[in-house]
Design goal:
Layout (H helix, E strand, L loop, with lengths): L18 E2 L10 H13 L10 H4 L1 H12 L6 E4 L2 H11 L7 E5 L4 H14 L2 E5 L7 H7 L5 E7 L11 H10 L3 E5 L11 H4 L3 E4 L12 E5 L50 H15 L1 H21 L3 E2 L10 E4 L8 H7 L2 E2 L1 E3 L2 E4 L7 H14 L1
Parallel strand pairs: 1-11, 3-4, 3-5, 5-6, 6-7
Antiparallel strand pairs: 2-8, 7-8, 9-10, 10-13, 12-13
């Protein structure tokens, strides 16, 4: 079992008295990330110091860092501005025909749902929305939906509303056996839950950078299985994706060849001279802590939250049925209006998603934060 980390609150700029349990919405910023951003903004004042190679080379360490987070190599990582962009790449490449089905989860995050609805409309496929029956898991529900009509299964690592786990290592082989593509949204897991794409082997896996990866907004990641590296089609025609683009003197000599690996799928302006150094600082720290240790440390807090809210009569998924870094708390008489505002007045910050209070701590939280949350919750029941 991984050894838990102590409180890392001093590494973040969080005022005393603030209990922030909402990393699933947006992470606070590491001091090192803020410093990297300030340095990068200042560097923009002197653009004459940039070399042509800087537009490309500075992105390579970031690819490698994210690859280490999910068990991939840098060649399989593209830089994207959002998960919706990454899902659009997946939708532009996975083969879907009229009459086939695209399997999605009930009440999944809108970006994914809209992407797959549009693909179904364009191709004549149909959307199959999987609901979870009482007493069953999302994994069981997804497996039950597989048949010979399925073209794509779109699944997260966990459900965004309450952290309910999808066992991708169990699901993925069944998806492949059905002849379907697997597309994964890891936004609510990458950086806080161990992921190994070598074992899962998804066609595409994408994640935002501003949640559990502790980075800035508008720079995310797309893992692309090697089988798409040569035949995959990007969704924009940026000059930066072309082979030899590093030679600025020959840009007028147009070429059709794309840069190797997943780089063909990079967004335009992937150099991101301000956001990229911030993201490097963030992922460097995530890897220094280690994702398994992060999961174990946060898990100690969510286990206590689960136990104490159950004692108040709330509904909480069993530990084995959810990721360790998120816990969904369902109140015995439903959600009262103004709940998050009342919590915020006490400087306790969480989200309400679906019918759950979504509690999402990180290493800047400790047992004092758990006690504050539970005490305020007790007062509204």
């Amino acid at each position: 079992m991984e050894r838990a980390l102590g409180s890392q609150r001093a590494m973040f700029d969080i005022p005393d008295g603030v209990t922030y349990l909402n990393c699933a919405s947006m992470s606070p910023q590491l001091r090192t990330v803020t410093e990297a951003g300030i340095d990068a903004v200042r560097a923009k004042a002197s653009p004459w110091t940039l070399r042509p190679s800087d537009w490309f080379d500075h992105a390579e360490p970031l690819r490698a860092l994210f690859g280490r987070v999910i068990g991939a190599d840098a060649e399989s990582v593209a830089l994207v501005p959002s998960v919706s962009y990454g899902l659009a790449i997946a939708a532009a490449n996975v083969p879907v025909r009229a009459g086939q089905s695209i399997v999605v989860l009930d009440r999944e995050f809108p970006s994914g749902t809209y992407t797959w609805r549009e693909l179904a409309r364009r191709t004549g496929a149909r959307i199959v929305t999987v609901a979870r029956d009482a007493g069953s898991s999302w994994t069981d529900a997804l497996l039950a939906a597989l048949d010979d009509t399925v073209a794509v299964v779109a699944a997260p690592v966990c459900h965004w509303t309450d952290g309910s786990l999808i066992d991708l290592e169990r699901l993925a082989p069944a998806v492949r056996a059905a002849g379907a593509a697997l597309v994964v949204d890891a936004s609510q897991a990458a950086g806080a839950h161990p992921i190994d794409v070598a074992r899962i082997r998804p066609d595409f896996l994408c994640s935002v950078g501003y949640k559990w990866l502790l980075g800035p907004y508008s720079l995310g990641y797309l893992y692309v299985d090697p089988k798409w590296h040569e035949r995959g089609v990007p969704i924009e025609q940026t000059w930066m994706s072309r082979l030899g683009a590093e030679d600025f003197t020959s840009l007028v000599d147009y070429v059709d060849e794309l840069r190797p690996g997943a780089r063909r799928f990079d967004m335009g302006e992937f150099s991101q001279f301000t956001l990229l150094p911030m993201s490097v600082a963030a992922l460097t720290q995530v890897l220094e802590w280690g994702v398994p240790r992060i999961a174990a440390s946060i898990g100690a807090l969510t286990t206590r939250i689960a136990a104490e809210t159950k004692a108040l009569g709330c509904g909480v998924s069993a530990d084995a049925e959810r990721v360790r870094h998120i816990v969904g708390v369902r109140l015995p008489r439903g959600l009262p209006s103004g709940l998050t505002e009342r919590l915020a007045e006490a400087r306790v910050f969480v989200s309400v998603r679906g019918d759950s209070i979504r509690v999402a701590p990180h290493l800047y939280n400790d047992e004092t934060d758990v006690a504050r949350f539970v005490n305020v919750l007790r007062s509204v029941l």
